[in-house]
Amino acid sequence: MADSTHTVTNQAPPLVGYDVYTADRALTEAVERHVAPELRDVAHEELSALGQTAGSSQAQEWGTQANENPPKLRTHDRYGNRIDEVDFHPAWHRLLGHGVSAGLVNAWNRPAGHVRRAAGFLVWTQAEAGHGCPLSMTHASVPALRTDPALAAEWEPRLTSTVYEQGLRPAAEKAGSLFGMGMTEKQGGSDVRANTTRAEPLAADGEYVLTGHKWFCSAPMSDGFLVLAQAAGGLTCFLVPRVLDDGTRNVFRIQRLKDKLGNRSNASSEVEFDRTWARRVGDEGRGVRTIIEMVAATRLDCVLGSAALMRQAVAQAVHHSAYRSAFGGLLIDKPLMRNVLADLALESEAATTLGLRLAAAYDAAADDAGERAFLRLAVPAAKYWVTKRCTPVVAESLECLGGNGYVEESGMPRLLRESPLNSIWEGSGNVQALDVLRALQREPEALNAFLKEVGTARGADHRLDAAIKNLLTELADLEGIEARARRLVERMALVLQGSLLVRWAPPEVADAFCASRLGGDWGTALGTLPHSLDLASVVERARAVV
Fold this sequence. Notes:
546 residues, alpha+beta, seven-stranded mixed sheet, two-stranded antiparallel sheet
């Protein structure tokens, strides 16, 4: 006989068993827009297949397992030999393997590769965000390695492979490899020119030994790492393999794993080098310029990763509100809740639209100097703003679920813990803002390309026109520019998002964005949009229908 004393009613069903890709109208429209007609069917099919897996109960369970069973460090084997290995839960390997097989480590060797990979990254990391770190670093290492054709010829086929092979073995014995990076040290953090790790040349050309440390080194079971160290000619980039060609372990002493706020499925470690063998990448003294290609690509992934977190949080909030009744009706039909959901949906769509526009610029940049110049300003501006918006969006989305959202089983606390990460990784907010200032001061072609992009929508919305005019006024005033850099970069990002939405989003989305973000008819909290807007259509567009 059943022990139940009541029947459970008025609880939203889980958002599971759906296609994460096709349920996201902003994303599918962006792919349609940025992918050539002859490739669209293939792109939609591959992304829909990935979306179905991402929305499955199996993938969601992998995400839960990988975070409830975080990685464990084993510095020595049972006999006392130093091994420096990290054990991951099988769910981590399934997530990572699926991401690799879906091509999320390779945008470089296929048509519309950056747009297709960006969309896939945004879809797949909604299942679990932590494993996106090695996917991102592996993908981003390719342009840095290409500064040395011999190294690129050796490593690029494995780094762009769709085969995932776990475990430490000589890279030449594996069909696919993963890469990490090591830049920051205890004393310097973002100021990498303060690094003290030393590089001493060996007799063979391009070979060195490194002595020093790295304070943050994520995914330490990767096959190789791009690191910065001080050589005779200055700060230089090096490739450090975990296993040498003869099968012996390189000196890569993992001191401990960080106990992090979020991103708990992923291992972030402290590493020491003691005459660790390395290969130079690029010329001595050119380390920052060499590795900056990797940093630029991972900064785009910070935008995409935050867009993924926001999309998943907003999808959960809208889904819950579509099923939950209170005070005589569904939450989604209540004017105040509709305002909150619409405001959240605007942030999510603006982030997705901007992220895919940047990916399209990467696809075009090889043959278009204007797109390269556009990226120089747009990437750090987008990285600054989109990652900053992630935490308030996720927190407000969690609140839409009430107490249910505060419970770990809902998945919302994991999203909230993850949300600040991308604003820190690859340079925090101040670093991004100062990078924008450097580009403005040293690369006038970057500003010209940026203004050309936002100006494309000029005349289509009076609030956007006014915002562009105000931005030009701010850009012309250099007094106290560093102290107000955040304000300036915020305005740049909002004007860029507004321009994109005016051109490409439905009128109700563009109208609401321009009224609030550009026109000033908005409060300081989410859910304060003008009541006269078509908020119901904005919310319905954001709904993920199972």
